[in-house]
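User: These chains co-purify. Model them together.
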Amino acid sequence: MSSTSKRVLLIEDEPNIIEAISFILSREGLAVETHSDGATANDKLRQALPDLLILDVMLPGKSGYDILRELREDPATATLPVLMLTARGQTRDREMAERAGVSAFMRKPFSNAEMLEQVRALMAGAA
Amino acid sequence: MARDTLTGTRIRERRVILGLKQAELARRAEISASYLNLIEHNRRRIGGKLLLDLAEILGVEPSSLTEGAEAALIAGLREAALTAPASGAEIDRLDEFAGRFPGWARLLADSRSRIETLERSVEALTDRLAHDPQLADALHEMLSTVTAIRSAASILAEPGDIDPEWQRRFHRNIYEDSARLAESSRSLASYLEAEGEAAAKSGTPQEEVEALLEAADYHIAALDEGRAPEEAAEELGTAMSPTARALLRRAFQRYAADAAAMPLGPVMEAVKTTGTDPLALAERFGTDPARAMRRLASLPSGAACGPVGLAICDASGVFTYRRPLPDFPIPRFGADCPLWPLFAALSRPMSVLSRGLHAAGRQSGAVDAIAFAQPSGPPQINREPVFEAHMLIFPTRAGGEGAEEVGITCRICPRSNCPARREPSLLGDAGEQGF
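Assistant: Joint model of the two components:
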């Protein structure tokens, strides 16, 4: 990977989802880092400082909503584009994510094409 | 209970509906007002010409006065009519309807209460995902697995070369995930199936137990003959859901303990003297008033004390046992009248409260209620006791003077100026009720 490629941090606890998403994003020319533990997610984020964060809602240790709220309070990550993944698509969940400051929201199971589209849109917006 | 004991009640009910003064009706029937008063309080039996005259003045069939439907039925019909006001049901002719078509009336009232039960089940089921963590977990697990499979499969399906090493990995992932999906979908299906079976039965487990007790007229002869409660519950509850059977077992264990402390023969003999007085009965058997109340409510029909009703609630006010009287229904769900002495007893544990009660807006006879709250189990060191309240009800002998007007539930209670009103009544003016 060249040093100029955009970097994505994927926080997700399902190994096979990690593998598939990493694969398609790498093929897109992005540098992908992964992390699986909710409790240490924000430490990992501060250290990695990616251009985009993909965050699962249901994580061991800490929920995606809490991680999102905390990172929004930190000036270093306050404007970071965040794409949230959830298995629940109820309006209430969407609202909760929006209140916590999400940039985009995707419901599982999503297609690879949808994922790529969202990631491209968010990257373009951040650039 | 003889059917014609409520003739007076029905005459009064009909008279009030017509807005007729007692004196006026008495004058037109050519009897004295005080005699009519006795009739209306079911203290004088009437028949023959006087009955025919009264029926004519009141504009009803004589038979609807002597065979009028029970109070509970009227209440059920009234609630059905009020929840669907657009139907234009003739509430002022409710009595007539119930009297002339008792079978249809019962069908209507039963359907209404069945609808209410189902509506509550639907409410509970609607927000299933929010309230059932097991279901939410199972679905989350399935969706995660499906996501992984879908992602990996579409990588493999897309045109273009994929490194053989990656190809092997994604194939293996799909294989593993599909096995996981098979397992989780199977367990989800069996979870939902087991639930469907239980729900196919009539309503909640509490209702199943109630239905059984009601069908047995609240007297379980096998237990009085000394059968082990576990055995009896197993045998009588074969068709029940497991939860209902567990509740039945507990109810039977308590019944058996009561029966052992107060054997049927001696109790049947004692109530000839003590009647419906649970304190006198408790004293004779050296036991507590709550047990005496339960025993009174479990005697076979024909016991000398006459029919009694009993309600038991836990410290949160939820009914755990209900045996209604024909004239004094006890609601099924936790939307009861806070004025019932049963609830007052919870705030004055170990004091026996006695009250005359009169069902608001209803002309049926008053009842006497005796309520008592005591700890539901033996004392434990450094633990607050958990209280349980019992309330025994029986037709009043005092004539119902000074009886407190209580409701079944606020929604259908017409009492105005009620200190305990929780929501406006469907009957009458909301402003007058303090809303």
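Chain B has a mean pLDDT of 84.
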